[in-house]
Amino acid sequence: WVTIGLAIAGNIIDLGPNSEIDPSGLDDAIGHALSGRLLGNIGLLEGAVRSAENILYLGDNSGEIVFDRLLIEQLPVDKITFVVRGSPVLNDATMADAEETGMTALVQVVDNGSDAPGTILEECSDVFRRQFEKADLVISKGQGNYETLSDAEKDMFFILKAKCPVIAQHIGCNLGSLVTISHRKEAA
After folding, report:
1. For the whole model, what pTM was predicted?
2. Whole-number pLDDT of residue 150
C-alpha cells in the first residue's frame, strides 16, 4: 500500500494560487511517502476494498491524478468509478485530465457536475449524488474533499495530507502528516 502514500504525496502538486512546482519539493514529498509513516488503519481500508462491489474514488487535483492512477491500478478496477470536477476550478481534476492520463481507459470516469473546490453535495449533479448514495465504498482524496465531506452521512475513507493547522488539529495529527481516515456515518 505504498501507492496510498504516493497518491497522498502527489498532493504537493496542488498549486492552488501558485503557478510553479518546486522539483525538490516533489522529490521530498515522494521520499516522505516512501519512507514516512502513513497514519490510519490500512487494514481497515484493505478489508473495505475487498468487500466492496461499487467503489467511488473522488479525485482531487489535476497534477496528482497520475499518482491516483498508480493506486487505482492496485485496486479492483472493474469496481471503481473515478470522479472529477464538473468544470475547471483552481487546478482540480477534470474529464480532460482523466482522458490525458489514461484514467478513462482504466476505469469508468464521471464528473460531479460542480465547479466548487471539494465536493459540496448540494452543488453536485443529481446523477453524481445517486452514484454517491449507491456506492458501498467511497475513497475521498485530498484535503478539500475532507473539508466538504467530513460531516457527510456516508461510510467512507479519506486519504490526504494535512496541509493546514486547522485540519491537522481536527484530524488529530501533525501538520504535513499523510493520513487515511475511516469515517463512519452516524447510526440513526
Report:
1. 0.88
2. 92
